[in-house]
Amino acid sequence: MIANALPTVRLSGPVAVNKPAINFGVSFSGVYYPFRFDRDTLPNGRYIVTIEDGKVPNFVGWFDLTDANGGQAPIQEGPPPATNQAPTVQNQIPDQTGKVGISLSYQIPNNTFADSDGQIVQIGVNGIPLGLSWNEPVRVISGIPQMPGTFVVIVTAMDDKGATVEDRFNFVIAPDQTNPENPPPTSGYQNTFVDVPPDPDILDLRYSWSNINGELLAHITNAAPTPTPQPGERNMWWISGYDEPFYDNFPNDLYVPEDTWLNVYFGQGPRKEVYNQGYINKSNQTMYIGKANT
Q: Which of 12-21, 35-44, 198-207, 283-292 has the weakest average pLDDT?
């Protein structure tokens, strides 16, 4: 090989290029070859370097461009590591049931999630019924439910490289039929009732009947003033039957049909997180809508 006969150099990455671009050197077949590639023409990302001279096996390496000032990780010999594959839901979690005042326990099955190129290192839950708690090391939701309703529980798995996937299921908690304060939601029940608000200056649910297109519906309002959140945070109202919270203000168009349990949670935080981080529950209240005008 003639020392000054440069072999062919190719780059491939976010934008395939075959022109000068960044300073680096490679010892190839006993000879050190300097190369320059114009950084301004390349976006950030991972690039594969291939050097061919037709006489020895090709050199293959890779490097990362990390910032607009030309920050570059050292060239690594060999093919770049494979892109991480996010975990997947292998078996969906079935809906669960319980009853107010009765202890329960449910374990998330081991085969719920799978990861093809790593392992599951963390599982978190959000939206479990009031009175229940999550024990991550054994993947168990347990406790004594304190409030009836249908709760959408979000279960999120994270792999060892930080990728996540989520599954959802309904946790239906029936009322305590022996307690007259929690009547069963049957079509034969007449009276509407609202739990005493624990924090009426934050959450104070009221209702009035409205005729909407010939159907009597209960219009739900919050008599409490809207709290002012801390800088960088938002108000959030979680309402049963909705997968996402209502942000900033209580909805003014919330209408509920007869024979409906309604659970409302109020909290504040910078964002809605799957691991209950960044969201702090401030108050909650429940009500049962019976027959119209009751």
A: 12-21
CATH fold for the domain made of 88-174: Immunoglobulin-like (2.60.40)
Domain boundary assignment for the chain: 8-77, 88-174, 193-289
Of 253, 263, 255, 259, which Cα lies nearest the Cα of 294?
A: 259
CA–CA distance, 50 with 33 (Å, rounded to integer): 13
Question: For residue range 246-280, what is the model confidence (pLDDT) as tens digits?
Answer: 889 999 888 888 888 888 888 888 766 543 456 67
Specify burial of residue 223 (Cβ count, 10 A radius: 0-12, 13-18, 19+): exposed
Q: Containing H/E element for 34?
A: strand 31-37
Contact, 292 vs 216, CB < 8 A? yes
What was the pLDDT predicted at 21? Answer: 44
The reply to whether the predicted model has a pTM over 0.90 is no
Cα(276)–Cα(44) distance, rounded to whole angstroms? 34
Distance from C-alpha of 151 to C-alpha of 286, rounded to nearest angstrom: 13
Tokens of 60: 């293959």
Nearest-angstrom CA–CA distance, 99 and 102: 6
